[in-house]
Write a structure and sequence with these properties.
Blueprint lengths: L1 H28 L5 H15 L4 E5 L5 H30 L6 H15 L4 E5 L1
Antiparallel strand pairs: 1-2
Length: 124
Amino acid sequence: MRLLGNIIWIIFGGVFIAIEYFIASFLLCITIIGIPFGIQTFKLGLLALWPFGKTIKEKESANGCISLFMNLWWIIFGGLAICISHLLMGILFSITIIGLPFGKQHFKLAELALVPFGKEIISK
């Protein structure tokens, strides 16, 4: 079922979301200061490419103060906008019963888009 969900996700826009994240990741990694943010954007792109069967959890070795500081910078400079866009798409997809699984994936992306530092993506 996960495979079917991921294939439908890719066909109906998941690949475009992932490409946008990968382009943003590349552009962020051009500068030294942007590399940590580019890595997090790449993480979002990987989740956006194949979201079914993945979960987000806190890293065991997350650096508390550094993660907090970086997440604050992330939220201020675009993370909130990304989170809101995934929340709106999640709400839109959740209007119909058929769209509920896809809305759930957008909510998962919204969670990671708000505070990506100190989180990891694991396969179920």
